[in-house]
Design brief:
The structure holds 2 protein chains of 2 kinds.
Chain A lengths: L8 H11 L10 H5 L9 E7 L31 E5 L21 E5 L2 E5 L4 H9 L8 E4 L24 H9 L5 H26 L7 H24 L17 H17 L5 E6 L6 E3 L2 E3 L2 H5 L5 H27 L7 H4 E7 L14 E5 L9 E2 L7 H11 L15 H4 L1
Parallel strand pairs in A: 1-6, 1-9, 2-11, 5-6
Antiparallel strand pairs in A: 2-10, 3-4, 7-8, 9-10
Helix pairs in contact in A: 4-7, 5-6, 7-9
Chain B lengths: L1 H11 L7 H6 L5 H15 L1 H4 L20 H16 L12 H21 L9 E2 L2 H12 L29 H18 L8 E6 L3 E3 L4 E2 L4 E4 L8 E3 L8 E13 H8 L3 E3 L2 H9 L9 E9 L14 E8 L4 E9 L3 E7 L10 E4 L2 E4 L2 E12 L8 H7 L9 H13 L5 H16 L4 H14 L1 H4 E2 L8 H12 L6 H8 L6 H13 L3 H12 L20 H20 L12 E4 L1 H6 L11 E4 L13 H6 L8 H12 L24 H4 L1 H5 L1 H15 L23 E4 L2 E4 L1 H10 L1 H17 L5 H16 L4 H9 L2 H4 L11
Antiparallel strand pairs in B: 1-16, 2-15, 3-6, 4-5, 5-15, 7-11, 7-15, 8-13, 9-10, 9-12, 13-14, 17-18, 19-20
Classes of the chains: A alpha/beta, B alpha+beta.
Chain lengths: 423, 810
């Protein structure tokens, strides 16, 4: 086996800033770089979603009189740069099943005979990636603090297909920073992949004439998918000779939920810095890696979310969720450290943190936890409190999209925007 | 309602003709007769809740269209009839209509349904269906003889009625095709490989077993205490997985509490750390005859070394219980290239430091200990070497055979499960030739062919031409139903000779197939969906509340249900066994979970139940009780819905959008019965919950992991009473009696589920009539489960035959 240089993970985490001495734009293919003046600032979006919500009693401002919500305390160093938006949701029910609507705004039951099938739709990050990531190596990244179940997925594509997050930082690292050993060979392999798809596509056409007309739609969807995949391979192939940014190797996987989350945040920051992509989503699923606090392993995150108002259990839940916001706070700090040609990466990156679950204990999908930070949005250090049930969360998304430079008047069931408050 | 239509009718239209003979024997009532009969009944018994003023459950009956030739009306009337048959409507508190009236109405609706079905002269069809994830993997295994997952990382398909293998939900999308091709590429490379056999068996023992610093090496054994960190783990030194695949990990050793042994022998021990005595004492000590869990963890090969980390990295890929005397246990696990494995022991107290004590002058580990003599890794699992597909396509030797074209043709025929059009054959041959022309080796180029085959729509989709004569479609339908995989040579031969569609042949083949071990795949796949066992890993029980729970127990629970299903099927037991049985199928670990004595060993076996033991049937099985709980507490609502959906075939409508869920409050002494009081007190809730909650309450004596209880944690007695239209009960034994009275309803529900699974779509009203007739006929013949499946396979509906499909008139 090849021996790689081994460095301590923590070194990797804190030491990367100094080691990134790559010139700006060095990771863009020349053709694209040439048409891309630095002046045109690149906008990015990072969406973070917890599957089990955030304990409402310590999240929403003013839920406890004037006492500051404890879950926001770790974020206080950034107080002037984020806004908590309260009282917004997608107006749906479904508990855990409805949670993946967080970024799509839709929990769409489809009737088939007497049965109901739920389909999701394109999520905010995927829609944004279509516009923002045209010139970057990757369309978008889906990362996970831990392995999640498909039903917990945060990002969904335009076909309503869940895009499973990658929970293994080594795989993410490979994808972002490890070059093909033999680009020529890799490119040749891709050419063969495309010619195989060509034959398959032709055969899909031929098959159409052998089956009933009612079945043709499915085969047609397959045909279209093949064509789409060919385009994706083509995009990969165009990038194959462009070296990936060099960063120190990553040898060791973290063994706890939050260490892994922190590393995912770090990889996201690096990916954005080097323009490997401009859109990422990070999922905090209901379980998987152990959650530890001060060496002590906390049991059953999902169990805690069903606290049944038992004060001891609520306290444990808040402890876990405080780790979520601490990690987020570190990520925001990290983005502020990185220079992005005249501004900080934070100034060019919208960060959305929240959940499709409003209250894990009652399984309510109302009054969701939502926090937006960074980007061109107007943060005044004050939080927004909307009257519950009046303002769809999708209105917030419309404002976010517009601020990212994406012309769009609506998203899912939006009824307008909150430009007055946030833009 | 329009949406209902477009889905149901277009997708599942089936034409049903009435045999003239039967038709002549029964006089069809004219529609006016139906009107004359139904109007006064609806007026008298239904309109109060389903009329102009109120439309409970969104149902209005006074103006429900009586034109049965429209499918949506037929479906609704079929529901009305169901309600009357089961006695669920009119509700208890209303005046009961005279029995004679009810049966007259049921009969009239049935007659209308049947004559509507008969007059709908459309072409019936079974929709094109993509292979489900499990079907993809099984087919690869049967086609190529290697055990790699074509479904790896593919996006999950949506659920419909608990099924994830129905035509309408099995989509093709770019995300799926992209990953499918990548997987196909990996699989093809292995399938066509030659040269040195990559299958290996390596054994590791003292000296070659690597381990963390807190592990002790003795003369024969490597010994570790129970812990949660990697200082206590061990691994085969320098092993790394050469190829993705299925590997068998065998561990020879044993585990027991050394303290107990020393104390029994009267030998003194003194811990080096004073506080150890105390902290170890605080934890419950496991008796030595209790099973101890060992886990196998997959890690990157480079991670197999000592580190002072507080937790263990990697994926938990397998578990087994190890005995307290020298034992040999194995588990088959899926590993990725470049990985190694760790053996991890966390069965007892979790210690951060080594529990080292002085025993007879020597420093030794004194605690609950795992002693490992050897670790053996063998794999990857491949039928033969070179792999079967290699031998078929390019021969086993290095000399390329001269009939490659013919070999490709045979391969495509098997992979596509029907004769291959000339053009398709040509393009795949061209793909092979082009590869060679561009400098690929024969092996590489043939790899491309296999990759193309696995990515081809002809491989991915099963379809029926719909002319009633598509015998290839029938062969695939049968084998994907009973084996969840491609047809074997016998079925292909019968299809080729145009024999398979004959009921006699089908009957014989079904019986043959059900004896094949591949039936296990049907059992796993069908129970995963029907019973919801695929979700058993969701919502892991809170370890604080359920200390005895472990991940292996979870898979044993699932195995119990599968083994039980297999027993009922193999022995052709009556399907009412699913409702109640005088036996269960368990092993030692489950016996302990169920507090049943005298079951030793890990193999599952049939155990006769004492008379008043509550475990018989599906509802006493821990798997079912676990998946219907949320990991912390039981929910009568979830359990009630489960029974209605899966046992009674009567799923309740989803909760209305404007109802806010109840937030549980465990402060104070409220019981679940109190918490659900709103379901009874508020009318809008009560409408539905009166038919849901009672079934769930009947199971309250089982906690969230299926252990029997008579009290809740707070000391209050369990409330397990329920009342449903045809009976009331207190506790599970009572409730099973009520369910057995509804065994006809269960027979219909199960038959409909089987048909849905076999055909790949939710049944239309016409198909339901046929399914219900089959259920009824089967019940009259003793209700044998195997008989039922054979009856399904030989039915015209399953055969896809149109002309002879008929709905019997009552």
């Amino acid at each position: 086996m090849k021996k790689a240089i081994e460095i301590n993970r923590r070194q990797f985490l804190c030491g990367t800033g100094g080691l990134m001495a790559l010139p700006f734009l060095s990771s863009l293919p020349l053709s694209i770089a040439a048409t891309h003046p630095i002046a045109k600032a690149r906008k990015r979006l990072v969406c973070v979603g917890t599957f089990l919500g955030m304990y409402p009693g310590e999240w929403h401002p003013k839920q406890n009189g004037n006492r500051k919500p404890r879950l926001l305390e770790p974020l206080m160093p950034h107080r002037k740069d984020f806004t908590v938006v309260s009282g917004v949701d997608h107006g749906i029910n479904g508990g855990h099943k409805g949670t993946p609507s967080f970024l799509s705004g839709v929990y769409q039951p489809e009737y088939i005979g007497e049965s109901i099938m739920v389909r999701n739709q394109i999520t905010l990050d995927q829609l944004a990636a279509k516009h923002l990531s045209r010139d970057s190596r990757y369309h978008s990244l889906q990362l996970g603090a831990s392995e999640g179940k498909p039903s917990q997925t945060l990002s969904w594509d335009e076909n309503g297909v869940p895009l499973l997050p990658e929970p293994d930082p080594i795989n993410v690292f490979q994808k972002l920073f490890v070059n093909d050993l033999n680009p020529k060979e890799a490119s040749r392999a891709m050419t063969f992949k495309r010619s195989i798809l060509d034959i398959v596509a032709d055969d899909a056409r031929a098959l159409q004439s052998e089956i009933g007309y009612e079945d043709r739609e499915k085969v047609d969807a397959y045909f279209t998918s093949i064509r789409d995949v060919e385009k994706r391979i083509e995009r990969q192939q165009q990038w194959i000779n462009t070296p990936k940014p060099g960063v120190p190797p990553l040898m060791e996987r973290p063994t706890t939920f939050h260490e892994n989350l922190d590393l995912m945040y770090e990889l996201t920051a690096l990916a954005l810095q080097h323009d490997s992509t401009r859109v990422a989503s990070i999922e905090l699923p209901a379980g998987g890696l152990p959650i530890t606090l001060g060496g002590e392993q906390l049991s059953g995150y999902h169990g805690q979310s069903h606290h049944g108002k038992d004060p001891e259990v609520v306290e444990e839940l808040v402890k876990i969720e405080l780790m979520h916001t601490r990690s987020l706070s570190k990520f925001l700090s990290r983005l502020k450290e990185i220079d992005d040609g005249g501004a900080t990466l934070f100034d060019r990156t919208q960060v959305l943190f929240g959940s499709g679950l409003g209250n894990g204990s009652s399984h309510s999908n109302r009054n969701l936890p939502v926090l937006v930070a960074g980007g061109d949005l107007k943060h005044s250090g004050k939080d927004l409190v909307f009257e519950e049930g009046k303002t769809p969360l999708a209105n917030v998304f419309v404002t976010m999209l517009q601020s990212l430079g994406i012309e769009s008047e609506n998203f899912a069931h939006s009824t307008g925007n909150i430009n007055n408050e946030l833009a | 309602m329009d949406a209902i239509h477009q889905g149901a009718i277009e997708v599942e239209r089936i034409a049903i003709l009435l045999a003239a003979l039967t038709a002549a024997a029964v006089s069809l009532p004219a529609s006016q007769d139906f009107d004359a009969l139904i109007t006064p009944f609806v007026e008298a018994h239904c309109v109060k809740c389903h009329g102009e003023r109120k439309q409970k459950g969104d149902i209005r009956l006074d103006i429900l269209d009586r034109d049965f030739s429209k499918g949506e009306n037929a479906i609704l009337w079929q529901d009305v009839s169901d309600m009357l048959i089961t006695g669920d409507m009119p509700p208890e508190e209303e005046v009961r209509p005279p029995m004679g009236d009810v049966s007259q109405i049921i009969k009239a609706i049935d007659t209308e349904l049947r004559s509507a079905a008969a007059s709908m002269n459309e072409r019936g069809r079974i929709a094109l269906r993509r292979l489900s994830h499990s079907a993809l993997d099984n087919t690869v295994k049967d086609l190529l003889g290697i055990d790699l997952l074509l479904s790896k990382n593919l996006p999950a398909d949506p659920d419909l009625e608990g099924f994830n293998s129905l035509a309408v939900t099995l989509d093709a999308n770019p995300e799926m095709v992209l990953k499918l091709q990548n997987n196909a590429n990996t699989i093809a490379k292995l399938a066509i490989a030659s040269g040195e056999d990559i299958r290996e068996k390596r054994s590791y023992s003292i000296g070659t077993i690597g381990h963390g610093h807190n592990v002790e090496e003795g003369r024969e054994f490597v010994t570790t205490s129970s812990s949660r960190d990697r200082k206590h783990t061990m691994w085969p030194k320098d092993f790394f997985v050469p190829q993705d695949g299925l590997y068998r990990i065998r561990v020879d050793g044993f585990a027991r509490d050394y303290r107990t042994d020393l104390e029994e022998q009267g030998i003194e021990y003194t811990y080096l750390r004073e506080n150890y005595e105390q902290s170890l004492k605080k934890r419950d000590r496991k008796p030595n005859d209790e099973p101890r869990l060992v886990s196998i963890i997959a890690i990157q090969a480079s991670e197999a070394r000592h580190m002072d980390a507080a937790s263990v990295p990697g994926r938990r890929v397998g578990y087994f219980y190890i005995g307290n005397e020298m034992d040999s246990q194995y588990v088959d696990v899926r590993l990725n290239k470049g990985e190694n494995i760790m053996v991890h022991y966390a069965a007892a107290a979790i210690l951060n430091q080594s529990p080292t004590a002085v025993v007879e002058g020597e420093e030794r580990l004194v605690a609950d200990l795992l002693h490992v003599k050897s670790i053996t890794v063998s794999g990857p699992e491949i039928e033969t070497w070179p792999p079967p597909a290699r031998q078929q396509l390019l021969g086993a030797s290095d000399t390329v055979p001269n009939n490659v074209e013919e070999r490709i043709g045979d391969f495509l025929f098997r992979a596509f499960r029907r004769p291959v059009p000339k053009n398709t054959l040509q393009s795949f041959n061209l793909l092979y030739q082009t590869g060679l022309d561009q400098g690929l080796t024969e092996q590489e180029s043939m790899g491309n062919v296999i990759e193309g085959v696995l990515t081809s729509p002809r491989f991915l989709f099963n379809y029926d031409k719909g002319d009633g004569k598509d015998v290839w479609a029938l062969a695939s339908r049968l084998s994907y139903f009973l084996w969840n995989s491609m047809p074997d040579n016998t079925l292909i031969k019968l299809a080729e000779n145009d024999q398979l569609q004959k009921p006699r042949v089908l009957r014989k083949q079904t019986a043959r197939m059900l004896k094949d071990p591949k039936t296990q795949r049907f059992i796993e796949d069908f129970t995963a969906q029907w019973l919801g066992l695929k979700d058993i890993e969701l919502m892991r029980p809170d370890p604080k509340l359920y200390e005895d729970y472990d991940p292996l127990l979870e898979s044993l629970m699932r195995q119990e249900s599968e083994t039980f299903f297999q027993e009922v099927l193999e022995k052709n037991l009556p399907i009412t066994s699913f409702l109640d049985s005088d036996f269960i199928t368990i092993n030692e670990r489950l016996a302990k979970h169920y507090q049943i004595e005298g079951v030793d060993g890990s193999e599952f076996r049939k155990v006769a139940l004492p008379k008043d033991n509550p475990r018989g049937g599906l509802l006493g099985q821990a798997s079912i009780l676990k998946i219907t709980s949320d990991g912390t507490r039981t929910s009568p609502v979830v359990r009630g819905v489960w029974i209605l959906e899966n046992i009674l075939g009567d799923p309740p409508s989803p909760p209305p959008a404007d109802v806010m869920p109840i937030e549980p409050d465990v402060r104070g002494t409220k019981t679940i019965f109190d918490m659900l009081s709103r379901h009874r007190e508020i009318e809008t809730c009560a409408d539905c919950h009166r038919s849901i909650d009672p079934w769930g309450f009947g199971l309250e004596h089982f906690d969230a992991i299926g252990v029997y209880r008579s009290q809740y944690r707070n000391g209050q007695s369990v409330y397990a009473k329920g009342s449903v239209p045809n009976g009331s009960f207190d506790g599970i034994a009572d409730m099973k009696r009520v369910l057995l009275n509804r065994s006809d309803q269960f027979a219909r529900a199960l038959t409909e589920k089987l048909f849905t699974y076999a055909l790949g779509h939710p049944l239309s009203f016409q198909e339901r009539l046929i399914a219900d007739d089959i259920a009824k006929a089967n019940s009259q013949k003793g209700g044998g489960f195997k008989d039922l499946i054979i009856a399904i396979c030989e039915s015209p509906l399953f055969r896809g035959e149109i002309q002879s499909t008929q709905v019997a008139q009552n």
